[in-house]
From TrEMBL:
Enzyme Commission identifier(s): 2.7.10.2
Gene3D superfamilies: P-loop containing nucleotide triphosphate hydrolases
Protein name: non-specific protein-tyrosine kinase
Species: Sphingomonas guangdongensis
One GO molecular-function entry: protein tyrosine kinase activity
Membrane topology type: Multi-pass membrane protein
KW Ion transport (keyword) present: no
A GO term from the CC aspect: plasma membrane
Length: 727
């Protein structure tokens, strides 16, 4: 890009040095509004196109209705039968379990159940009738799949609602009643399928348990039979919890203990009796004798006899017969008593012998029983093993029996782990095309598309259009804008050429634009430049018309002015004023005519024109024979201002030489037509030739457009001061 230096401007008019403006955080709203107003028709066209496209899509779209039903998953559901373990475990309620139910709802099997329940094959959109809407390949499925499963699945959306236990079922159809039926039937079939699956599982488990019970019952009987046979074979029959051998040993033990006690008692009585006899007691004080009734009677008789003997002796003396008889009786009694005591002692000895003999017999029987018990204990190890196996089989059998009873109690009573939360109503408005949404979409995206088109147009627009383009992109002075004549007249038609309109309407907005341009060309101190060159980057940018109008403006300001047509190839200025075959400029440069004869005077003003309507016969530069500086020096002797109408800078190299000789150079850029790159290249060439570039002016501006040259230019406010002009 270009950078303005002291060489780019007139020597005596340097621009003030300004501090670099701080870049604002947000773009200028006025600038955005100006861009929008400039591109208003583009915005409206794109917005209308988007709106029309949305409307066309909405109108040609087949109405599709959406109906929604919801089912509620119930993870913790009470058993129908209390205190009975359920065959089917309830849903856990975690995210994975809920997602599993969503997949079940989305399955082809459930879709097939719905298709059968609603007889969907009779509807055209499911392949029924002549107007089938589903391709044959979409109706088919894999092996075992319902032929309409895929078609139904394509019409239904299943989704979990947030993090809740609710699952939404949304069915879509061109028939609003059918959409509601499909959504509701999906919910019903899901509940029914889950209940059926649970009851089927209970029946299956119950049947399997019955088979296992029969098998286990046979195993229990076989185990019990093996135990009994083993007991019989090994003499391990028992009563009251113990074997017969154990009972015999136990009984013998008790009898032996009694026999031993009895023998000890007999030994004690016999030993005491013998001890008393050894002491000479005669056995009268033996305990057994003392306890005998016979002994007691004899002792009483002995006592009575003794007493009677004593009485008779005292009364009759020893020799009395009664005394003798009494004494003999006493002897007999005592003999009987002794015989009785001897008999008792003999009985004690017999009892002792009998007790000892019984103890010995019992001990022998016990030894035999213990030998049999030892043999039984060895066989009992095998019996315990058989009993453990029988108990294990019996325990398993009992578990199966209990579980079978629990399972049979649940048959036909299983409920689904879900319920219908809400059924769908028949939708009134179609889901798609959603007309309100389409309108909202158009209201939102049509302006966005329009603004996007404006942004793209601005980005791709490489034309010089505004004051900001000149100052920020070309980096040269902006010296004004020249309006298109028609744009200053509102709806009035133009009957004359712009140069003529300038003379006939000196108070018009068009004439004021050239007075502003003339003011912009003034040097420092308001000194009128002696030579002003008008150029442009490309042809057909209005240089000749601008040169004529500017020259007439100088004349109107009282300056003696000459307009030189330096564009000898096009000769637009010369053809505007001079007759055919006028070769004044060529003759003057060749030296065949003096300046006064080469000039042509404007019949409508005091402007003089130096030009030629005849093309040169040579191909070299116009000022090859006579340097431009010499020509200007001679012109300055007769005129105060020399206006040079030059050829385009990019087209003719000589233009740079001519511009370098001028006191002030005005470069024109056709509004919204001149390429930014071309203008930039032209400025570069002028600066490279050390031309005194006064600035760039925008030409042929349609000032009717809002902010046509930028919101900072005077034409942004032309409607406010249009009353000052007489157009």
């Amino acid at each position: 890009m270009n950078v303005m230096t002291t060489d780019t401007l007139a020597d005596d008019d340097q621009p003030p040095v300004q501090a670099k403006a701080k870049t604002p955080l947000l773009p200028d709203a006025s600038l955005l509004w100006a861009v929008f107003r400039r591109r208003l028709w583009l915005f409206l066209a794109v917005a209308a196109l988007v709106t029309a496209g949305i409307a066309a899509w909405t109108l040609q779209k087949t109405p599709i209705y959406a109906a929604a039903a919801t089912v509620l998953i119930e993870p913790q559901q009470a058993n129908v039968v209390d205190n009975v373990r359920a065959v089917n475990a309830p849903i856990s309620g975690d995210a994975a379990a809920i997602e599993t139910e969503v997949q079940i709802l989305s399955s082809a099997g459930l879709a097939g159940r719905v298709a059968d329940a609603l007889n969907l094959q009779r509807y055209p959109e499911f392949g029924g009738g002549a107007g089938a809407m589903i391709a044959e390949q979409d109706r088919g499925g894999g092996p075992g799949m319902h032929p309409l499963a895929r078609a139904v699945q394509s019409k239904v959306r299943i989704n979990r609602i947030g993090l809740s236990y609710l699952i939404g079922i949304t069915a879509e159809s061109s028939n609003r009643f059918l959409a509601a039926q499909i959504a509701n039937e999906y919910a019903r079939q899901y509940i029914a399928q889950q209940a059926e699956a649970k009851n089927s599982e209970v029946s299956s488990v119950s049947s399997e348990l019955q088979k296992r019970l029969k098998d286990m019952e046979g195993k229990v009987l076989a185990a019990d039979r093996a135990v009994q046979q083993y007991k019989i074979a090994n003499n391990l029959m028992s009563s009251q919890g113990s074997t017969l051998a154990e009972q015999e040993v136990s009984n013998l033990g008790g009898q032996i203990a009694g026999a031993r006690a009895e023998l000890a008692s007999a030994n004690a009585r016999l030993s005491a009796a013998r001890t008393q006899l050894s002491r000479g007691g005669g056995g009268a004080d033996v305990g057994a004798a003392l306890g005998s009734g016979t002994v007691s009677g004899l002792r009483q008789r002995e006592a009575d006899t003794t007493q009677r003997l004593a009485d008779l002796t005292t009364r009759y003396g020893d020799r009395h017969p009664d005394v003798q008889r009494a004494r003999q009786e006493l002897v007999d009694v005592r003999a009987q008593l002794q015989r009785e005591i001897d008999r008792i002692i003999s009985s004690l000895s017999a009892e002792q012998q009998a007790a000892a003999s019984r103890l010995a017999s019992l001990s022998g029987s016990q030894s035999a029983a213990k030998g049999s018990l030892a043999s039984n204990n060895a066989a009992a190890v095998g019996l315990l093993e058989l009993e453990r196996k029988a108990d294990a089989v019996r325990s398993i059998y009992q578990s199966f029996l209990n579980r079978s009873k629990e399972t049979m109690s649940q048959e036909g009573l299983e409920r689904a782990d879900a319920r219908i939360d809400s059924l769908s109503r028949v939708p009134l408005l179609p889901f798609t095309p959603n007309v309100p949404l389409a309108i909202a979409f158009a209201l939102v995206f049509a302006p966005i598309a329009g603004l996007g088109a404006i942004a793209v147009a601005e980005y791709l627009d490489g034309k010089v259009s505004t004051k900001q383009d000149v100052e920020h992109k070309l980096r040269v002075r902006y010296i004004g804008a020249i309006p298109q004549l028609e744009s200053t007249l509102d709806k009035s038609r133009v009957a004359e050429a712009p140069a003529d309109y300038l003379l006939e309407h000196p108070a018009s907005a068009f004439a004021e634009a050239f007075r502003s341009l003339r003011t912009a060309t003034l040097l420092k101190g308001r000194v009128v430049p002696r030579t002003v060159a008008i150029t442009s980057a490309l042809p057909r940018e209005g240089k000749s018309t601008t040169s004529i109008c500017l020259a007439r403006t100088f004349v109107g300001a009282g300056s003696r002015t000459v307009l030189v047509d330096c564009d000898i190839r096009r000769r637009s200025t010369s053809q505007e004023f001079m007759p055919d075959n006028w070769s004044g400029l060529l003759d003057f440069l060749a030296g065949t005519k003096p300046l006064q004869e080469a000039l042509f005077k404007d019949p409508y003003s005091d402007l003089y024109i130096l030009g030629s309507t005849v093309a040169p016969s040579f191909s070299r530069d116009l000022f090859a024979d006579r340097p431009i500086e010499d020509v200007l020096a001679e012109l300055h002797q007769h005129f105060e201002v020399v206006v040079l109408d030059t050829a385009p800078v990019l087209a003719i190299a000589e233009t740079r030489t001519i511009a370098a000789a001028a006191d002030s150079v005005v470069m024109l850029a056709r509004w919204r037509s001149t390429s930014m790159k071309a203008a930039d290249a032209a400025v570069e060439m002028l600066l490279g030739a050390h031309a005194k570039l006064r600035g760039v002016a925008l030409n042929l501006v349609d000032i009717r457009r809002y902010a046509s040259t930028g919101y900072q230019d005077v034409y942004s406010y032309h409607k406010k001061f249009k009353g000052y002009y007489q157009n």
